Amino acid sequence: MLEITCIKKDSGNHENPHTAISELGWVNVNTNQRGKSARIEMYNFVVQGGRAYVSDAYGNKAYLITAISPLGTKYVKTVPDSTQTDNLLKLPKCWG
């Protein structure tokens, strides 16, 4: 299971804020391995049964799901819930 810890966005115009995400930083909660994956790599990870989530300071978790934009762009987003603080788009910027 992966916890998403940061995101990197491309500049420019995008179909929606989620398609602007170019990379997602993560930590494997079982092994402590850290890494970054391109948006399409994370999309494929989730499609293939991988699980990833975003958590907030209160311990709330929102799991990633896949989506495809009207123009065919594949991306990930969090399952909508009542907590706004665990939102993928609210994560800090990945560096490097």
Task: Describe this protein's structure.
This protein has 96 residues and is mainly beta. The chain has one domain. It is built from 1 helix and 6 strands; from the N terminus they run βββαβββ. Strands 3-2-1-4-5-6 form a 6-stranded mixed beta sheet. It is globular and about 35 Å long. The model has no long low-confidence stretch (mean pLDDT 91).
Short description:
With 96 residues, this protein is mostly beta strands.
Give the radius of gyration. Answer: 13 Å
Q: Kindly state the percentage of residues in helix.
A: under 10%
Largest sheet: 6 strands, mixed
Q: What structural class is derived from the secondary structure elements?
A: mainly beta
| Strand content bin | 35-45%
* N-to-C series of helices and strands: EEEHEEE
Number of DSSP helical runs: 1
Q: How are the strands ordered across the major sheet?
A: 3-2-1-4-5-6
Shape: globular
**Stretches with pLDDT under 50, minimum 5 residues:** none
- How many structurally independent domains? 1
Number of strands: 6
From the N-terminal CA to the C-terminal CA, the straight-line distance is 23 Å
User: Quick check: average pLDDT?
Assistant: 91
Specify the oligomeric state: single chain
Fold blueprint:
Layout: E1 2-9, E2 21-28, E3 34-38, H1 39-47, E4 52-55, E5 61-68, E6 74-78
Descriptive key words:
96 residues; six-stranded mixed sheet; mainly beta; 6 strands; globular
